[in-house]
């Protein structure tokens, strides 16, 4: 994957993350409590 493509994927992932934090729901709360959200954030970074 080129650096530009990698940057685009990361940018899209961070936009989705921002939206999920802006409009939290029960699914997000469960993902945070279970550690799933932290694992996904580490994968992005």
UniProtKB/TrEMBL annotation:
<protein>
    <submittedName>
        <fullName>Molecular chaperone TorD</fullName>
    </submittedName>
</protein>
């Amino acid at each position: 994957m080129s650096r530009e493509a990698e940057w685009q994927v990361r940018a899209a992932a961070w936009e989705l993350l921002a939206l999920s934090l802006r409009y939290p729901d029960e699914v997000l709360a469960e993902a945070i409590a279970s550690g799933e959200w932290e694992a996904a954030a580490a994968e992005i970074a």
